[in-house]
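Margin note: ligand = pyridoxal-5'-phosphate.
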Amino acid sequence: MRARIPFLDLRAQYAELRDECDKAVHRVAESGWYLLGTELAAFEAAFATHVGAKHCIGVANGLDALYLSLRALGIGPGDEVIVPSNTYVASWLGITHAGATPVPVEPDPLTFNLDSDRIPHAITARTRAILPVHLYGQPADLDPILGIAAKHGLRVVDDAAQAHGARYRGRAIGAITDATAWSFYPTKNLGAWGDAGAVTTDDDQTADSLRVLRNYGSREKYVNDVIGYNSRMDELQAAILGAKLARLEEWNGRRSKLAEKYSTALADLPLQLPVVREWASPVWHLYVVRSVARDRLRGALAQRGVETIVHYPVAPHMQNAYSSLGFPPAQFPIARTLHEQVLSLPLGPHLSDADQQYVIESLHDTADSWTGTDGNE
Ligand SMILES: *Cc1c(COP(=O)(O)O)cnc(C)c1O
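Resulting structure:
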């Protein structure tokens, strides 16, 4: 059964942009050219301008954007990369696929982002890079991270898969670090009609490496300089993303309004609401609350037809995929607790005021059923 309030309504995005998207699809169909063409070049230029970066390199998806960035910066087997202990597993997989080893560092439990005070303790002779994630659309505190990186000669690659349009101390995320990795998975703030990703950077050499790596390691057809990949954003995705980019700021503005409303209307409930630092301009990819009774809260909302999602139920160090790293579950207690307590409320550019009001009322009306203590805390 379809929830009364869906978590995110992607059909509404198409309804709003039907003409532009249909035109884009036809343009690509008629062109007879489906990869590495004018649509990709146009989107790369537009997105680079949007985030204030010199270069944008379109790739197949966000995971590829991460490992190709690391490879372009020369990071590989034997190297360690510092990454948040609480993130989507793809942030870790990007490091693993580059051949390097993820070294988790715990987050600030209020902002959910990398706690830079903890980074120096994780640095070893093998550390080569730091990979902060702008989780849920909140910029990570980049200045201290860049300071530590400069002191130890490390690279910084940021995972901006959830942060299209976010700003840190007034600067757009996208050209602050050595390379910024983006995902355009359909549910992101800027989402394609399938998989797509990109890397933005100000550095000419990194950009050149990425263009070669994404296309079989070849600069000139049938001449292969390095062991490359096939990781290209296709023309159809580029055309759709170009049409949607024109709406990104407006849609992010709507997300901000909804987030503000949640934060005032839910302030009296026993929930930890998102904390925004004075230097942060988030884009509210997700509105994430924390509760010791998360599962009961989620169940109570589901009964009212309100769809919520847990981002993410299992910390990466506790996934079977990473059992070989040998981390005991108790090693990263902040990550573990967050993964047990976080809940994302419905939020998207097309959530109506009335539907949000229903979510807010549902939270208040059911509060007796999920407040207080029980065995799972
Ligand atoms: C979505 C996401 C990715 C991966 O992007 P894909 O395009 O799905 O490969 C990486 N990191 C984070 C934080 C994400 O949210």
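The longest strand covers residues 55-59.
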